[in-house]
Amino acid sequence: MESSVETDLCSAPDPTIVQPSSWNGTLAQPPAQQSETAPTAFQAMDREQQMKISESTQFSDGVEDRGLLESSTKLNPLEAQSYRKKALWVSWISIAVTLVLAVAAFTVSVMRYSASAFGFAFDAVLDVLSSAIVLWRYSNAAAVHSAHREYIACVILGVIFLLSSICIIVKAIHDLAIRLLPEVDDFLFSVSIISGILCSILAVVKFMLGKTLTSRALITDGFNSLVGGVMGFSILLSAEVFKHNTSVWYLDGTVGILIGLIIMAYGVKLLVDMVPRIRQTRHYEMFE
Hints:
Helix content is 77%, strand content 1%. It is elongated, with a radius of gyration of 33 Å. It has 8 helices and 2 strands. 39% of the residues are buried. A hairpin with a 2-residue loop joins strand 1 (22-23) and strand 2 (26-27). Strands 1-2 form a two-stranded antiparallel sheet. The protein is mainly alpha-helical. Residues 1-39 are annotated as: Disordered. The chain crosses the membrane at residues 87-111, 117-139, 151-174, 186-205, 217-237, 249-272. InterPro entries: Cation_efflux_TMD_sf (IPR027469), Tmem163 (IPR026765). It is a multi-pass membrane protein.
């Protein structure tokens, strides 16, 4: 009897030795295998994050494919209409301001023979037209997120940019060819400073609204106002340089050509980007 008990005690497992156990039917893994599966878990998390990113990208693309802008997923209806009204107000203010600046700049260009003033006047007219296009873009409350309407507005802006840039470049080249010298006075300085400040302020406001509404038309309008601000200050710069050094008479015309080329390049890019998108979204336009 005692021998059988001793045999059972000898055959009992040592409690210090950990035996493989199961938890929910799964065998416990040794430490080596656990260390190998740890990176796999991190890789799985990375794959999940990549899938989420790709899903969000596909969602944005899907929104655009349905004829809507990205703002439709960011703004609720009340916010969208509030920003739409702000865009309309800014466009009306921009039309009034730039129309006055255009008249003043044309007067300066004729009285003082300034090619850059003529270029700014043309850009101010372009700003009036681009703001009018933005007014049309947001005139329909139901079309605040319409991608098709957005792309049409951008194509019209691109055409206007091309026509205006050609006029600015031709006028600047003509003034350089006949060696037209600008005249400098207080009126020219006043117009250039006021134009630069007002157009720069309008550009900042339009950029902010365009970013919120994801509107390429508003951003383009802001770019045009920014160009107008740069041109206003360039008039001041070229006039000041000519005042102190008459040998640099060509600076005024050169600035006009440079700004004309910038406007042309932006117009071409706008047409290249937006014409194909009009064809893609024409089946989704339901707001007219």
